[in-house]
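Narrative of activities, Objective 1.

The group set out to show that a structural description can be obtained from nothing but a protein's sequence at a throughput compatible with the screening campaign. Below is one input-output pair from the validation batch, recorded exactly as produced.
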Amino acid sequence: MSAVEVGDGWVRASVQGTERYEAELTLGGRGGLAGECDCPYGQEGNFCKHLVALGLTALTREVDLPRQRESARARVRGLDAWLSGLSREELLAVVRDEIAEDRDVRRRLELRAASARGDLAAIRSRVRELLDVAPFTRHGYVEHADARAYAARAGQAVSAVRSLTASGRAKDSQALAREAIGSLAAVVESIEDSDGWLGQIGADLAAAHHEACRAARPAPEELAHWLVTHALDEANDLTDIDPLDYEDLLGERGMADLRRYAVDAWQANRTGWAEKHLMGQLAKAGRDIDTVVAVHAADLASNGHTHLVIARELETAGRPAEALDWVERGIRACDDLATVDTALVDDLAHRYTRADRPVDLLALRRDHFTACRTLLTYQRLRVAARSADRWPIERENALALVRADAARKDPHQCSVLVDVLLDDKDTDAAWQAATEFGVHDGQWLALADQARPTRPADSLAVYHRLAAPLTRQTGNAVYERLVSLLLSIRDCHHRLGTTADFTAYVADLRAAQQRKRNLMRLMDAHGL
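Output recorded for this entry:
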C-alpha cells in the first residue's frame, strides 16, 4: 500500500490487489464511514477488502485523523490564498507550466476551451481521440491490464458530451453522443473487458444522450427512428437503451412512429432476436397481448418452449383457456416427446390437475415416459396413475418397457431399471436386476443401503468390495468414504450376529493403515 494520504474528510491510498486499486474512505458525521474503490467489487457499490485494508492501515499507523484533517484544510486554504494573490500573468504562467508537465491536464483544458468557444469540430476530434484504442493496443488488442486505463480516458468523452448540453448546445451534444456510442461499439470487441469498465462507459453515454434529448427536444419521428435503429444494433448491447424511457419525449405521435418502425423491422426479420424483443417490449407496454402472441408465434421452437412462453403470457393476461390451448398445441407439434421442453409437459400436467382431468393427465405422463424413460418421468407417471387409480397396471407396463431396454444391454436403461425399482422400494427385484444386467458402483451402494435390513449378507459383500480399493488410496475425502462404508459393514455384522468378525476385520485394517493418521483419527471419532 502506498503512503496514506489524509484530506478534509477523506483518507486515500493506492492498494495492491490483483492489480493496483485506488481506495478512498470518506468520514461522515456521527462517526459514519463510507468508501469507494475502483476494483470490480467496489465498482458494484460494495465495501471491498481494499477499503478494509486502508482503514486498518490508518488505524495501525495511529494516524491522527483530526489533526491531519485540519492540516489538509490549512493546505487548501494556503493554496487558495496563494492562487488568489497571483496576478493574471502569474496565474497563466502556473497553468502553462502544469500543461507542459502533465499531458492529461493539457487535454482536459483543451477540451474545456473547445466547449467554451463552441468549437464542435474540435470537440468531436477530441472525443474521437479519447475513444481511439490505438495507444492501448498490444498486437491489435487491448489487454485486461490496460482496459481500466482506456475506460478512464473514454470517461472524458462522456464529460465532453455532457459539457455541450450544460453550455446550451444540447442538439450538438445529442449528435455527438450517438457518434461516441458508435465509436465505442466499434472497438469493444478488441478490448478484454471482463471487469465491465466499458459497460459503465456505455451506460454513461446512454444517460448523456437521454439528457441531451431532454434538453434539445428532437423531432419525435427522427428520435423514434434512431431509437429503433439503435435497439436493433449490436451497439445496444453496450448501452442497453430502452426506447420506452423516451416515451415522454416522444409523445403520442412519436410513440406511434416508434411502433411503426418496430413493426416494419420485425416483419422484415420475424426470427431476429432483437426484433422480437423490441416488439414484445412495446406490445407489453401497451398491454397488447395479441401482438405479443403473434411475435412469438412467428418463430416457434421445435421443442415447444415458445408455446410455453405464449401460454404464460396469456395466463398472466387472464386468458387461461387460450393458454391451455397453446400448451396442448405445443405437445402435439413436437415430433418426439423425448426432446420436448419438460417444463411444457409439467405446465400441461398442472393445468389438467387443476381442471380435475385425471385421464388426460395420465395419458400425458404415460406418453412422456414412453418417449423418455427416466426415473423422473417414471415418478411423474406414478403420481398420475395413482390419482386415476391405475398404478398397478401402469407400473407393469412401464417396467416391461424398461426391462426390454435393459435386455438390449443399454447401460443407461439398466441403471434406470434399478433406479425405478429402488424408488418403488422393490428391493429384491432391484437386486435381481442389478445382478442380471450389471450397474455402476454408486447404484450398488444405494442398493446395499436399502437392502441391508433384509439382506445383510449380500450388502456386506458389496461394502467389502467397495471398501477394498479405498484402502489403497489417500486423502481426507477417501477416508470419509471408507469410514462410512465401515459403519455400514459394522451394521451388517451386527444384524448377522458376527460382531467378532468385524472386530478382527477392523483390527487388521488399523494395523495395515496405521500410518494414515487422519484416517485413524476419523475411525476413533466414530468408535471404530
